Amino acid sequence: MSDVPDILSETIPRKSYFLGLDFSTQQLKAVVVDEKFEVLHEAAVNFDRNLPEYRTSGGVKKNGSTVTAPTVMWVKALDLLMDQLKITGLDFQDISAISGSGQQHGSVYWRKGVQNLLPTLDPTKFLFLQLANCFSIQDSPVWMDSSTHSYCETMEKKLGGPQRLADLTGSRAYERFTGHQIAKIVSEKAELYFNTERISLVSSFACSVFLGCYSPIDWSDASGMNLFDITLKDWDSQCLHMCAPDLKEKLGEPVATHTCLGPISNYFVERYSFDPSCQVVVFTGDNPASLAGMCLEPGDVAISLGTSDTVFLWLSGKPTPSLEGHVFCNPVDPEAYMALLCFKNGSLTRERIRDVFAHRSWDEFDALLACTPPGNHGHIGMYYDEQEITPKIQGTFRFNAFDQKVNTFEEAATEVRALVEGQLLAKRVHAEQLGFNIGVWT
Q1: Is 19 found in the same domain as 110?
Q2: Least confidently predicted of 207-216, 336-345, 383-392
Q3: In a domain, 226, yes or no
Q4: Start-end of H helices in 17-170
Q5: What CA–CA distance (Å, rounded) separates 59 from 139?
Q6: CB 97: neighbour CB atoms within 10 A?
Q7: Do 311 and 270 share a structural domain?
Q8: Using CB atoms within 10 A of its CB, is residue 257 exposed (0-12), middle (13-18) or buried (19+)?
Q9: Does any domain span residue 252?
Q10: CB 46 within 8 A of CB 84
Q11: What is the pLDDT at residue 2?
Q12: I need a labelling partner for 131 at 20 to 30 A (CA). Which of 54, 120, 201, 219 fits?
């Protein structure tokens, strides 16, 4: 398990508050907790509503398959957020440590010379005024971008195929992954790339602002770039060379996700009266942070049920990355891994079956499910209203107790249980393919 408490215990007082931030797609959120994890203060800045001057929709700008966000918008959101926290009555001197998360895969490009600027920011001025011209690329590519398909194909082909890339980096090539976004910038905006001093993920960008110098990228978030060897826990030279020249120098050395980087920058001490000894712990991606925040342990499975369903897994043994799903370095235990599986057909599919077979009532849906036994008398269904991500398939497939394909089931209750069990079995099958072991402790 992580030794963060031991690292921090030498530098924090007995009674302490902790500030956590999340730089997500649509908003910037903050929460302050005490040593018992009780929530004391909360604040949020919605990018569309609170920063309309950047003209984003859902926190992003879309131009066909290219999806970006103004980098300085995130900085200005932080200015607003800090003022909101002050209004809640928070005494920043009580904050002993800071950490946070950011939307995965997004990238930030610091122009040359900024390394010398970050430690000398003027505490009498807002951050966004001082950092507005600090980015060589003004609009950061984000996870919703799907404009890099050709770059993905190139990497997989040169490396020996998608499975080889997955074995190395934890995932086959995905358009949103950072390495391919960097390759696109080198191809289309080479001059801007060569004027870049450091490339950060959204998480390490945010951490850099608090640290007053460039923050390293952590192992867990680095696992979502198609550049990081998840076994050796270091950048893979082949992947780096395929994407861009001098990329290792621009990324910096990666660190373990529990690493305590040092005290907060003088800017926050002078402007907000933070204690100079307040420690900054490396930020990570939002998905690894979710696994840590839910306090998952070996053998645990967490499922987020939404428009898309997401499965979080703690992998204790050697992982077996596949062409579906992702394997990341574990944010809590440096010797373990985590897996992430995304299923596109989630709540909307469940709602369709509810509407057709349970008269639009969840209570009736639950009653129908309860009146059928586990196993559904051998009936099973797979429901893919939209083309699925894991695996890539579309359509509805029903099978009776004799493994014969049928168009419908006779009973509504059979249909409801077929949906629920089919979705859960799919999650189990793909989890086991990634190396997760189902046991009595699961």
Answers
A1: yes
A2: 383-392
A3: yes
A4: 47-50, 71-87, 114-117, 127-131, 149-159, 162-169
A5: 12
A6: 21
A7: no
A8: buried
A9: yes
A10: no
A11: 44
A12: 219
d(CA 360, CA 117): 58
Both 223 and 338 in a single domain?
no
Domain hosting 79: range is: 4-290
Segment 261-275 mean pLDDT: 98
Backbone angles phi, psi at 303, to 5 degrees: -125, 125
Tens digit of each residue's pLDDT (9 = 90 or more) over 410-432: 999 999 999 999 999 999 999 99
Considering the domain architecture, whether residues 362 and 232 belong to the same structural domain is answered as no
- Shared domain for 325 and 361, answered yes or no, is no
* Digit-coded pLDDT (tens) for 297-318: 998 999 999 888 999 999 988 8
- Given a contact cutoff of 8 angstroms between Cβ atoms, the answer to whether 163 and 313 are in contact is no
* Phi/psi of residue 329, nearest 5 degrees: -65, 140
Q: Does 435 map to a domain?
A: no
Number of folded domains that form the chain: 3
Cis status of the peptide bond prior to 391, with omega within 30 of 0: yes
Rg (CA), the chain: 23
Place of tokens 């660190």: 255
Mean per-residue pLDDT, 172-183: 97
* Claim to verify: residue 327 and residue 197 sit in the same structural domain: no
**With contact defined as beta carbons under 8 Å apart, do 291 and 187 qualify?**
no
pLDDT mean over 126-135? 98
Cα distances (angstroms) measured from residue 398 to each of 56, 160, 376, 403: 43, 37, 12, 9
Q: Annotate 370-427 with DSSP letters as a single string.
A: HTS-TTGGG-EEEEESS--SSS---EEEEE-TTS-EES--SSHHHHHHHHHHHHHHHH
CATH number at residue 395: 3.30.420.40
pTM confidence score: 0.88
